[in-house]
Write a structure and sequence with these properties.
With 195 residues, this protein is of the alpha+beta class. It contains 3 helices and 8 strands. Strand 7 and strand 8 form a beta hairpin. This is DUF3515 domain-containing protein.
Length: 195
């Protein structure tokens, strides 16, 4: 009795049955491996994204250069020297963040691993958005022009001898704007928006 031995119940040759079972097992192992690899890859990507986000929020902040002809003025020196070492953001005290070199004059930033940067710049040029029909908001006696750019907002104090800008994520609330308004109101005299 030579030849292929058939399995008595199914009529399928034993080697074919063994190959079919082995292929089924290999397929199950392969699918499980892809699932584990996919989970690991997704987990690793999340970790890398979190690490990149933390790195973006820490270390020296690269502040883009913008024209600030009055940055060296006595008015800007008065404002910049009065800015706090920590800024209250959502109930947390957020420290100053160093600026990458070359750092723009009259620029200060706050931020840490859990808070996007908030910056104050002094002595900048009048923004193109400031027109006689611009909607201004009064905060503690200081007139502000809001400029939204993507997910960030910039507020410009427009009724002082120099323009002062606060830039922050749009969802940060008005606490920093109120604090800066009080500081500016005490350091710089009010003047007409369009002298």
């Amino acid at each position: 009795m030579g030849g292929v031995v058939e399995h008595e119940d199914s009529g399928v040759p034993r080697p074919v049955l063994i190959i079919a079972i082995a292929l089924g097992v290999l397929l199950a192992v392969g699918v499980a491996g892809v699932g584990v690899y996919g989970w690991y890859g997704e987990h690793r990507l999340r970790q890398e994204t979190a690490a990149a986000e933390a790195a973006r929020r820490t270390g020296p902040l690269a502040a883009a250069p913008i024209p600030a002809p009055e940055a060296q003025s006595p008015e800007c020196a008065a404002v910049m020297s009065a800015l706090p070492a920590q800024l209250s953001i959502g109930g947390a005290q957020v420290p100053r963040r160093p600026l990458a070199e070359p750092a723009p004059a009259a620029t200060v930033a706050w931020g840490d691993a859990e808070h996007d940067p908030v910056t104050v710049r002094c002595g900048i040029d009048a923004p193109a958005e400031l027109t006689p029909t611009s909607q201004l908001m009064d905060v503690s006696g200081v007139s502000w022009l809001e400029i939204n750019q993507g997910g960030d907002s910039s507020w410009l104090a427009v009724d002082r001898p120099v323009y002062v800008a606060l830039s922050a994520p749009a969802d940060i609330g008005t606490g920093p704007l109120q604090d800066l308004s009080k500081l500016i109101g005490g350091k710089l005299p009010k003047q007409p928006v369009f002298p």
